[in-house]
Amino acid sequence: MDGMSDHQPTIFDKILAGEIPSYKVYEDEHVLAFLDIGPLSDGHTLVIPKERKAHLHQLSDEASAAIGRVLPRICRAVMRATGCTDYNVLQNNGAEAHQVVMHVHFHVIPKFGREGLGILWPAKKLADSTARELLDKMRKALDA
Questions:
Q1: What are the beta bridge partners of residue 33?
Q2: Do 3 and 96 form a contact (C-beta atoms < 8 A)?
Q3: Is the CB of residue 90 less than 8 Å from the CB of residue 82?
């Protein structure tokens, strides 16, 4: 689909294999969660599927469902451990979208004032013609 069907090994492969130590928060047969060693705030946690895919759209339904089941639990654990009431869940796909490790991963980032994730959000207005064209294309893609 996108030329990335062959997984290129990453640091996460070494973490999954136990070759590099990590601060494991959670693990089951499909998912591993561990503290980010370059955190934006205390409690910054990475949640990864054990399925080795670079981008979210490449994940199997099973791996996606496993992440979906675990992510809210990890968020609750981060909140309880840090006392945060606000947090971001961030997931990047591709280098231009700021993905550095080419293995699907979700960041759970507690927000404490200025500490945590900062976001630039250059919003624009959605034109009706653009919306209709996108809807048509996306609905056809979903049916494919």
A1: 26, 47
A2: no
A3: no
The single-letter code of the amino acid at 93 is N
Annotation says 105 is catalytic:
yes
Domain range 11-119, CATH class: alpha beta
Per-residue pLDDT band at 144 (split at 50, 70, 90): confident
Among candidate residues 30, 55, 103, 105, the one labeled active-site is 105
DSSP state string for 2-71: -S--SPPP-HHHHHHTTSS---EEEE-SSEEEEE-SS-SSTT-EEEEESS--SSGGGS-HHHHHHHHHHH
DSSP classification of residue 106:
E
Q: pLDDT for 117-136, tens place per residue?
A: 999 899 999 999 999 999 99
Q: What amino acid is encoded at 135 in this protein?
A: L
Cα–chain center distance at 46: 8
Per residue in 10-62, pLDDT (tens digit) is 999 999 999 999 999 999 999 999 999 999 999 999 999 999 999 999 999 99
